[in-house]
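= Protein in question =
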Amino acid sequence: MRLFLYGTLLDPGRFAAIAGSAGPLRAGRPAVLRGARRVVLRGTPWPTLLADGRGTVEGRLVRVGPAALRRLSAYEGRPYRLRPVTVYCRGRAVAALAWIAPSGRAVRNALWVPGRPARRPCAGPRG
């Protein structure tokens, strides 16, 4: 199964601990999802994707087998669901699946950046 990873599973140690091996992540390729941005999932420090016609999300395209997929799915948990996406890898469109939460759970103005805590853009006196 082809997966587009864009959040915490990009960390090789975390991926290996959950999937059983970092091999698929290392063998994967850089990929870009167009028309989306990576934001914070409400009430968590975790990311989700939100449609944004001008946005792009960098991640990694990996292939995993059924056992690793079960373990990764258990890690992702609720409310994430595997959704079809088209990513671009080496200039070619590739069909994949990505774990995405419902858009109503996304904090629209809180960008999530791998390796950094979630941040909110300035929004007036409290920002």
DSSP finds three helices and six strands in the chain. Confidence is low (pLDDT under 50) at residues 118-127.
